[in-house]
Amino acid sequence: MFHGLDQMRFFEPITKYCAIFKSIEEIPVIIKEAFRALRTGRPGPVVLEMPMDIATAEADLTIPSRVQPPAPIPPDVNDVRCASEILKQSKRPILIAGSAVVHSNACEDLVKLAEKLNAPVAVTRRAKGAISDSHPLALRHTTGFMARQAIQQADCTLAIGVRFTDIDTSNWSLEFPEPLVQIDEDSLEIGREYPCEAGVVGGLKLTLQTFLETLDTRHENWKPTLNQIREQFNTQPPLPLLSDIREVLADDGIIAVDVHAIGYASFNEFPIDQPRNFLYPCVAVSLGYAYPAAIGAKIAHPTKPVVCFSGDGGFMMGACELATAVRYGINVVAVVVNDSALSSIKGTQQKFHEGRIIGTDLSNPDFSQFAKTFGAHG
Predict the structure, then answer these.
(1) Which residues contact 30 (CB under 8 A, 6 or more apart)?
(2) What's residue 7's pLDDT?
(3) Secondary structure (DSSP) of 260-300
(4) Are 181 and 119 in contact (CB under 8 A)?
(5) Lower CB density within 10 Å: C or N end of the chain?
(6) How confident is the model over 251-301, as pLDDT tens digits?
(7) Secondary structure letter of residue 190 according to DSSP
(8) How would you classify the pairing of strands 46-49 and 93-97?
(9) What is the rounded CA–CA span in Å between residue 210 and residue 205?
């Protein structure tokens, strides 16, 4: 259909699995392989290409059975023992939790381990809610004020399911206290971005439970330091919009945040108490993500209130989905920061190029009238 374009070469490096159906008999086999990839290890996309002659063909085929996730791999006992010894010798360990904690359903185990060690926890963007931001050991985002202050005081890091992406590490300039102990489901992540003293590979829930059984050390050195850090954090004035949305959004409400200046601040300044209630385009950092993502979240959780928080540029990139929301009665609230610019990019241009800008000023519609033309409230 697409002039012989080799789409697989494009998709191979950014998917977990991609394939072309070359005969109708291959459909059940490839579908099963696709779901096996989807349900193994770290979540990621698959792409299947079906030529038109295969799509219109007929055959008597057996539909494959449901593909179950494989049993999680238990951690190596010696690796756990080595890592536990490092944690026992430290006086002020800090825990860094990534999104793998959430998709492994290991949030409760993370909190139990933090409480057993009496050690604070900082989280990456996609791990917001893995520990409630109201928990006394929660430091919020890795690059935020509380986490940075605690990192300066810590003498050991336990990283759990963390990919150490550029934004979560301030372009890898954030120096995590050494020794660094890293736990992950994927052996390729161990030591990939930061050198580590000890690595443990295994299902995160199983691994954290093993640590809970192994560790008996409680660190009492953190309490006065954490109290002081939290008092300093609480003295800062609340950010506009973020504090207003948090005040009216229910505790179990979902917020989808787009890529924009105040959106970046939400990593640290928008408290979340439950996992999977904060949506953000973590890896690709794609403008226009938030409104379509909010629609998907509302369909998945129709009884929860869902808010899209966008800049004007990002909202316009996904605003055509207002038609989808209206057609199917999907009640999502969109809050748009309208400053007629791609402000985050514009600020970077001004900072590093002597005030010169290019292509970052916008011409916007009247957003309330724009919504009404689709039949939405504005």
Answers:
(1) 19, 21, 48
(2) 86
(3) SHHHHHHHHHS---STT-EE--TTT--TT-HHHHHHHHHHH
(4) no
(5) N
(6) 999 999 999 989 999 999 999 999 999 999 987 788 999 999 999 999 999
(7) T
(8) unpaired
(9) 9
- Cα separation, 294 vs 297, in Å, equals 5
**Shortest CA distance to 103 belongs to which of 44, 182, 180?**
44
pLDDT on residue 289 = 96
| Contact by Cβ (8 Å): 61, 127 | no
Q: DSSP 3-state assignment of 77?
A: helix
Q: Judge contact between 151 and 177, C-beta under 8 A.
A: yes
Whether the CB-CB separation of 183 and 205 falls below 8 Å is answered with: no
Residues 266, 240 contacting (CB under 8 angstroms): no
Mean pLDDT, the chain, whole residue set:
94
Amino acid at 13: P
Q: How confident is the model at residue 3 (pLDDT cuts 50, 70, 90)?
A: low
Name the helix (H) or strand (E) containing 46. Answer: strand 46-49
Q: Cα Rg for the chain, rounded, in angstroms?
A: 23
Report the alpha-carbon distance of residue 297 to residue 312 in Å, rounded. 21
CA angle 345/346/350 to nearest 5° reads 120
CB 101 within 8 Å of CB 160: yes
**Residue 164, beta-bridge partner list:** none
Residue 2: pLDDT band (50, 70, 90) is low
pTM for this structure? 0.91
